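FAQ: What does the model actually see?

It sees only this:
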Amino acid sequence: MAAIDNTTTIPWDWYSDPAVARLEQRLIFRRSWQYVGHTADLAAPGSFATARAGDVPVVLVRGRDDMLRAFVNVCRHRGFTLCEGAGRRETLQCPYHAWTYDLDGSLRNAPRGDSEPGFDRESLGLVPVAVDTWGPFVFVNPDPAAAPLAEYLGDLPRLVAEGGVDVDTLVFHQRAEAEYDANWKVCVENYLECYHCAVAHPSFSKAIDVAPGTYTLEEHPTFSSQYGPPKNGGGGVYDADGEVDRGQFHLLFPGTAINVMPGRRNLSIGPIMPLGAERAYRFLDYFFLPDTDEQWIADYLELDNQVGAEDRVLVERVQVGMRSGLVESGYLLPESERLIAHFERQLVNALGTDLG
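And it is asked to produce this:
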């Protein structure tokens, strides 16, 4: 087991080692709650949407009984992925051999199955995945015996509500997606500190006060939080006046980012997940009140897109440095980067003794 303290990072070879990546999938992403989508895509019976929890393909389904369910998006016959995208279906039929499942996951029909000896339809339903919601936000956990989502979220919904955002009043606006030539942990750790903001994010630093003592950090059992008030009403970058008086930036372990910017009521949420040992994927779903001014949204999204482009350069260059193999680990500032240390403790605890 690797030991870390508040100033020494986990070994840098953990950011490129395929064996570590496999352990993270098994011990973290297959056991954790992760944001996958929103209820507007699953409003009517028969609605479905596909997603991923780490490397596990998932299909979300609204049953005819109006119950939201989630399953591993894999046919029990030959492993073909059942569904793509989102839409409406009366059943879930595999395009490979036409095995057909009801919306509750039970196997309805397998061509020639009943004529084969020993064919047990009852045992061949789709594999369930835990699913739950927080307002319009849908989360899954590949572990069907997982603790309830509300328990995992802890104080997070309260903090968001006290910050001026009633998530039940928000509506989905758009999704932004990106892939990075970097380990997912590099992306998470970049998100967890604003020590770099004054240098690398000039527009964000004009809009948000990132000075030490003003920009504050908090650790919670399952998430990390950063708070920053607007600077000079948004610094001319966007209009920070509104019902939300300070920014909130939360990271729900292992990789769900939740962002609230000062100004009009808003929230963006999405996962950071591995595509391999040295490649990551993330998306952000943006939510606003239905009557939010479109120009305000456009100004905010322009700022967010700029920060995202700047972050891409940062994380991909960090990955190159970590991959060099001649520096074993990094140094953390115990206050400014304490949320990185918190995340790495969570990571080590989740991996247990499997890393030796």
